[in-house]
Design brief:
The longest helix is centred in the C-terminal third of the chain and has 56 residues. By secondary structure, this protein is an all-alpha fold. The mean pLDDT is 86. Helix content is 82%, strand content 0%. The protein has one domain. It has 6 helices and no strands.
């Protein structure tokens, strides 16, 4: 495949191979992260809402893993700070506003973590076809140069170089499709996780208000 192509076409093909490896590596990694996060959130949510008191819920949050557990821990930490009477700019203002701000910041932190790798998938999905097209155009130019040197435009002369050049476009498309699908899936899962965290933060805020912003 690489024998008679120009060095630039070879470099283009190897670049697309690197893109493909990066794409499938991210697909496997993010797939495992999403699977683990879903299981962790489900386990924590079930245990937390079966707790009898906020204190029991705090103990469960400390022992659990996942985005919801970290969100709850951030909320309990804010409640403990307010209970302890800590005075600084971070804990100034109405208790409801302080807790709400703390929960919102934690949600944003979890969202940024979920966004890791998404930009790479989006970039590969949008650029891989054009990289492949560049390799094809350059390969065809190389083939035309060979034709001009030999003075023959027979099928046996043209088919090989142009066929090899067109492989670049095929590989570019084959690289872009998984990247785009993975990006869209990851974006949808991230929105679902963020919505789940927003709902939990709202419920947690209401629980804290009912308890007078105190953890027994």
């Amino acid at each position: 495949m690489f024998g008679s192509s120009s060095a630039i076409v070879n470099a283009t093909l190897w670049l697309l191979v690197i893109f493909s490896v990066a794409t499938w590596t991210l697909i496997v990694m993010k797939g495992w992260i999403h699977y683990k996060l879903s299981a962790q959130n489900a386990a924590f949510s079930g245990a937390f809402w079966n707790a009898r008191t906020l204190g029991d819920g705090e103990s469960i949050a400390k022992k659990s893993e996942g985005a919801l557990a970290r969100l709850a821990s951030a909320g309990f930490e804010a409640l403990r700070d307010m209970q302890g009477g800590e005075q600084n700019l971070q804990h100034s203002g109405d208790k409801k506003d302080i807790l709400e701000r703390c929960l919102r910041q934690q949600v944003q932190k979890e969202q940024r973590s979920l966004e890791n790798g998404q930009m790479v998938l989006a970039s590969i999905g949008s650029t891989a076809p054009f990289v492949g097209l560049f390799g094809t155009v350059w390969g065809i130019m190389h083939a035309l140069q060979e034709i001009s040197k030999t003075g023959s435009a027979g099928l046996d002369v043209v088919a090989g170089p142009i066929g090899e050049a067109l492989i670049a476009t095929a590989i570019g498309i084959a690289t872009a499709i998984p990247a785009v699908l993975a990006y869209n899936y990851g974006l949808r899962r991230m929105r679902l996780y963020v919505a789940e965290m927003d709902d939990f933060a709202t419920d947690f805020l209401h629980l804290a208000m009912k308890a007078g912003f105190k953890v027994e």
